[in-house]
Design goal:
Glutaredoxin; 2 helices
């Protein structure tokens, strides 16, 4: 079944690969929970059955921030496909997240 795309929305890029995403949060703050919810919606809509997410709570495991050089939370890190990409914030701007993850191309002005 083909998904209809609203007019003016950039065409999605091919989705034949598994995406590995890591979301860094700091406890159960409203921004952390919003980022988690927004990530789930985006992945379910644009990467159905083609993604693996890992949530890292830096309040429980602060030492894990060094590996991906995390300086702010929430931060989403795309581990695969390469290259590594980072998006800081609660992921509420879906288009920005899709561009940041390289799922769609940035709109030309």
């Amino acid at each position: 079944m083909k998904r209809s795309i609203p007019p003016g929305t950039p065409e999605p890029k091919p989705k034949g690969r598994i995406w590995r995403l890591r979301l860094y949060i700091a406890g159960g703050t409203s921004r952390s929970m919003a980022a988690l919810s927004n990530l789930q919606k985006i992945c379910d809509e644009h990467l159905p059955c083609k993604y693996h997410t890992e949530v890292v709570d830096l309040l429980k495991n602060p030492q894990l921030a060094a590996g991906d050089q995390i300086v702010a939370v929430p931060t989403l890190v795309r581990k695969l496909p390469r290259p590594l990409r980072k998006i800081i914030g609660d992921l509420s701007d879906a288009e920005r997240v899709l561009v940041g993850l390289d799922l769609i191309s940035e709109k030309s002005s």
